[in-house]
Design brief:
The chain has helices at about 1-25, 45-55, 60, 125-130, 145-150, 155-165, 185, 205-215, 220-225, 270-280, 295-300, 305-315, and strands at about 85, 95, 105, 180, 225-230, 235, 245-250, 250-255. It is mainly alpha-helical. The chain is globular, with a radius of gyration of 21 Å.
Length: about 325
Amino acid sequence: MIKLLKYGFGLAVLGVVGLTIYFGFTLPRAAPPSTETINSTDPNLQARGAYLVENILMCLNCHSERDWAIYGAPPKAPFGAGRKCLEADGQTPGLNDAGSFPGTICFRNITSDRATGIGNWTDGEIMRAVREGIHKDGHALFPIMPYFIFRNIADDDLKAVVAYLRRLEPVTNAQLETKINFPVNILIRSTPQPVSAPVERPPESDTIAYGRYLSTIARCGFCHTPKQGRNADPIPGRAFAGGGRFSVGGREILSTNLTPHPSGIGSWSREDFIGVFKQHESPKAVTQSENSIMSWASYANMRESDLGAIYDFLMTVTPVESQ
């Protein structure tokens, strides 16, 4: 019996040592950052970058304070200068599945300030952080930064994002560092994955493929698919079916069913879908309790053709009844 206990203890020790070596010395998986230099003065790159960052990727919504007195809570100036940290208190507006953060999550300054922003990051380091979740110093970013989704951003669009960020007015605003509790701080090292092949943007003429691309990087499915369990895994068979839980103004709201089921948007025309967004082009003052986590103020300024492409794609997903 004693021998068996010693044998079991030895195996346990070996297992711990093995996991320590695996997580501590082989993770995160990271490729060297690209050495490419982006022409941030290119007006076409700047325009595409502004469109993506401000209206689709919503980078500024996380990296700026938000104005909860305006419907859709658009970001407030100084844009990209960071915002206060999130705590696992279940009281922060927009907190998904309230109170699930394993520590303190802080949103860094992404302006070109060299001391407190990303002014001393190379273009390749920025692209790697956005799409692969690796900080300049090599550590894994906490996946509230949706790099596991942004890995789908096309190469040309990623360059446009960098061009836009380089043109943001530098703001000196030191932010606290994110502090993740054990063991999550170790486990997240397994999340980043290098992007090892070119990522192409579908042609706009293929509205279903292009709509799928836009809906992916805009995180439509992420918010409009219900989740379960400690890891907030998507519920199988309910993609885009709504029911994602968010907290706004002290109340819980559920995301809408975007499938072509009658209980979703099955009865909507393309024009109906576009109109739902375009009605929010003009800012509307509201109280925080009347607000929405949906970034209407930003999405409303998307091109009608892009909104139409997303609709075309959504009409191809499996119809699922709302719960």
